[in-house]
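Reopening: structure tokens for the orotidine-5'-monophosphate complex, inputs below.
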Amino acid sequence: MTTQHLVDQIHKKKSFLCIGLDVDLDKIPKHLLATEDPIFEFNKAIIDATHHLAVAYKPNTAFYEAYGLKGWQSLQKTIMYLNEQHPNIFTIADAKRGDIGNTSTMYAKAFFEDLAFDSVTVAPYMGKDSVEPFLNFKDKHTIMLALTSNQGAFNFQTKTVEGVELYKKVLETSKTWKNAENLMYVVGATKAEFLSDIRKIIPDSFLLVPGVGAQGGSLQEVCEYGMNDQIGLLINSSRGILYASKGEDFAEAAKVQAELLQSEMMSILLKKTGA
Ligand SMILES: O=C(O)c1cc(=O)[nH]c(=O)n1[C@@H]1O[C@H](COP(=O)(O)O)[C@@H](O)[C@H]1O
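Re-run output (same inputs, fresh job):
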């Protein structure tokens, strides 16, 4: 999917919501456990109930890999369902990959070609030659960790290296890489106050912003400091939407939570664009 297509979808749906499909069999409603593929059944019900409210879905691969081959098959069924039923929805494989170039190429093929995701999350730690193989794919997006939502972000990401905080160095340096226009960045919603500085370095890039809901980040603050002329934000919520109810009404309850976020986004967009 092109970035312009994503921007068009945001305006059409009046939403920049990304729903994180982090499926935990200990948390899903018990009646689904009797089905052949509980993870897929859960995702399908969530997607059916919320697809008009979200512009992106983000399965975190850990939640599928944890269930072995069956989990990977559920991931494959989920992405196929999204691509077939909702081709206008942006898909993110949250896999946080990155390795020597030769290996990164295979990771990129796995997520962009085999599974046909629109984007994948990567870690910047191994540098240019570990990320550039992901950037080679036309109309695919590589979402690189910049400043993460967790407490450990302060261990390395905000430390000063050659007079600059490391996360800023990551942003600056990555702009010089081949096909850098295919980069997006992760900034945690819990770090909203850093967004003004981040926007000085990457004014035009899209940001994936996880950490609203269960981690306590503020949607209003993220938009105040992080929104650009193209909107430039995908705000993710996973547990806050998926596990709103443990009962048979789980999909309806998820829809209500997604509606709350989407209507807040609609008001913000209205203020920003007047449309
Ligand atoms: O890359 C991510 O999506 C990510 C980066 C980050 O800094 N913090 C973060 O929470 N995430 C992911 O975003 C999701 C957040 O889930 P909830 O806290 O349940 O909304 C999980 O899949 C996390 O792995």
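Residues 20, 22, 60, 94, 121, 148-150, 186, 188, 210-211, 213-215, 236-240 surround orotidine-5'-monophosphate (CB under 6 Å). The chain is about 45% helix and 15% strand. Marking as resolved unless the reporter disagrees.
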